[in-house]
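Troubleshooting: if your tokenizer reports a length mismatch, compare your output against this known-good record of 788 residues.
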Amino acid sequence: MMTKIVVLFLAMLFLTGTSIAQVAINIDGTVAAASSMLHVQSTDKGMLIPRMTTAQRNLIASPATGLLVFDINTIGFWFFDGTSWINLSSGTPNTIQDADGNTKIQVEESANEDKVRFDMAGTEYFVMDKGRLLVNNNGKSVFIGEGAGPASTQANTFNSSVGYFSGSSNTTGVQNAAFGGSTLQSNTTGSYNTALGYTSLFLNTSGTNNAAVGASSLFFNTTGNENIAVGPLALFFNTTGSNNTSIGNHALYSNSEAHSNVGIGPKALYSNTTQSNLVAIGDSALYNNGTGATYTFESIYNTAIGSKSMYSNTTGYRNSAVGYHTLYSNTTGSEIAAFGTESLSHNTTGNYNTSSGSRALTGNTTGSNNTAMGNSSLAVNQTGSDNAAVGYKALYWSTGNGNVALGKKALYYNSTAHSNVAIGIEALYYNTVNSNLVAIGDSALYKNGLGASSSNDGVENTAVGSKALYDNTLGSGNTSIGFETMISNTSGGLNTVVGGSALSSNTTGSYNTAIGAYALGVNTTGYSNTGVGYRILMSNTTGGANTAIGQNAMYFNTSGIRNTANGYRSINSNTTGNENTGIGYQTLYNNTTGSNNTAIGFQAGYNGNNYSNSTSLGNGTNVTGSDMVRIGNASITSIGGQVGWTTVSDERFKKEVAADVPGLDFINQLKPVTYKLDLDAFAEFMHTPDSIRDKTSEAAKEAILQTGFIAQEVEQAALSSGYDFSGVDKPKNEGDYYGLRYAEFVVPLVKAVQELSSKNAELEEENLLLKKMNTEIIQRLEKLEKKF
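Known-good structure output:
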């Protein structure tokens, strides 16, 4: 019924022409809109427009402007705009296309495809799919922007060009990516390049594997390969150089044909053109590198890391600089390594230097062959060469040559001194101009050279050990090895010390040798002493020319001079005694003030107390007084040699000669006896401890039946004869004992024999006289007999 009504009204419309103002077609009496010619109203029906194929639509003769049809081929409404058919809308999907349908936009080519397709001249070039824009071309390339990539052959090139004339000259180059106006604009055959930024890789033609990020980066590159430029004007002038990396504004700006360079930081390697194998990391690092270079070996193999590191370098080569302003002023200096802020910052032409640490060798200008490791080490040095400094401010003020300092502030004040070695914290701290010194240990030779007024003061010293020769100022030629050895020495010279705290109190004493811990530990001004052993000459202060070898030898000596002790605690108790000689364990042990004594052997002279000019030879041998010689201990059973003992008897050395030796009177009073020695009594008298007695030998000797005299009886006989007999060795003190010099008995015996001989001669003469008288009597008797 409704269809009939619609047809009726359409017929009426056409028949009535313009006689009717508005026509309303509805079933509810709705009035037609004033602006409409036909107002169709319905809530459950539609109006059907003529349906036809595209061919039928195109065959409509002289279509009126605004003519509307439904194309069943494109599935959409088309209207004629007076010139051509225009796709008004689509169904599922909708399509916008040109008159011949070969250029169009399709929304869902098939139901629920959810894609938008773009066709041009019958070829589908773009597809929008779920947030992606797919480009369909033979080369699988993407070009966006006026003139972008039009010269591309599009045959499997995989190029992407976005921007005004980006990649516009490309012909056979493949897999290039260009983003920005005129990026890769001149590229023809170059491949695998990436350009991001206005005019980046602008002149590149055949260069490959380049990456340029930043306005005008790699601008002049033509055939250079495998370069990386990140930053405005990075590698700007590079043409044929390859394998370069530049990151930063103007980094490697002037590079043209150099290869294998790395410049990271604003203006890093800015002036470099043809020099290769360089590394510059930091603002203006290696800024002037290559300026004025004329030889191929100049300005190459440099590495600079840090702001303005190697900024002024022109022709210097094989340098490494790491840190702010490192090697900043270097121009031609070569084969240098600098690490740390302002390290070697003033170096200009110095070569072969190595520095590590903030401001290390910062003042160096022309000095060469220096090594400085540690903050401000060798900081002031300008022209000094061949120095080595390791440690905070080591050799800080030094300008000299050939010095070695290892440790915090070692050789800190050294200025022009040369050939010094200081190892240890503040070793040779105050030394300035003195040379040929060796200090090894914390504060060794700390004050050396202070107050020196002569070139010979404080020179040629060697100190090894913490605070060895700490206070030495003027002393020269000293060798001190050990903890705090010669710590107090000021001007003492030519001393040799080995051992902890040896000669630690020495101030002005010279020519001493102390070997062993605490050897000559309190010596102050004593000179020419030699001590070898632990605590040797430990108490010596002013004593000189002593020689002591063995632990604690001459331990208590203070001012005694010219003593010689060899053995453990030899001459142990000596304080002021002079010119004593003790060789052996505890020889002359108890001597304190006695002088000119000699003891050789185990505990020889042990009990001697302040004797002088005595000699004890042999194990445990002791004298009991001065001017005495003892050979052998109580166990000795034989003393001998190839000839007899010689006693000086030259008449030239005798005076007050008198023939008053008694003979028979003295001899006849002597009482020869046999006896056995009581060595226990002897040991008790001599205060000899059992620990050093040889009981076996003593027992053997005690078993021997001795023949001799009793000294006291001999003394009494001599007194009775009015004879001051030297054969009796009388006690010199309470600790001495009697002895006999049996050789001395020869003299009174000779006198006795002479007396006997004289009496015998008288008797012989008397006998002869008697014989004569007897003969005469016999003769007379015979004559008388004949008469009778």
